Amino acid sequence: MLVEEIWRRLEACHAIVYFAPEVKPVYTAAGLKGYWMGYFASRSAALGAAQADVVTAVFYTFAPARVGRAIPDAWAFCPPEAVLAARLEVADQALRRLLGDLVTAPSTAEAAALARHAVDPCPRAGRPLFAAHAALPVPAEPHLALWWAATALREFRGDGHMTALLAAGVDGCEANVIAAAMGAAPPEQREYRGWTEAEWAAAAGRLRDRGWLAADGTLTAAGRRARDDIEAMTDRLADPMPVALGPADRGRLVECLDPIVRRIMAAEAIPFPNAMALPRLGLGS
Asked: Can you give the pLDDT at residue 284?
């Protein structure tokens, strides 16, 4: 499915900022303390100096306690505008290292232009993270303009996914249990997202009561159908992006993104499985 291929490639372009070795030195130099403070501050800084409850709400699948250990303390160490500059520096350094000559390739500039074109028509209403990131200045360099657009568009889809989870009555912890049960997330998903054993067990119990989770921890047929319905609603809510591009530009965007994502994958810049449930992309050599 071409649209799904676009989303996965954009996510791969964006997600390097969570795993790159540049993360620690850049965020430490900016004044942030530890990985999770850097993560929550850098991803939420577009909202301004948001409080922990706000960040928990828009991130959805992270435990409130995990967010609360980083936010709002982060803003005392590094104000949002400085955090945003540090995050862009991480993206710049990581992409230059991973992409080499592709940083200045015409296809990268074309990918950036196409992705930027897809951002503008997407509605802001009900999409707080997307609206915040789409309002940030577009970097001049093509590789960073592409990363900017990939970031905004992945948050657009993510905001819609949160709406789909809410409509299905699935809370943040339950969403993680479902991802782990279907093998889309790593075994350490509970610890990564900050949920306690008791919270995880309670969420699994609620899913069993709904008939979605079997006694052995796998999804039942009803659970798989429910999960498919959530993904289908997420896709429907994400329709403005592919509609804005049109068929020809959708195909061209995939072509332009392929060499970029191929280098990201070849460098193993993203682990598999991962907490984002991004699957490995088979792009060939």
From this structure: 54
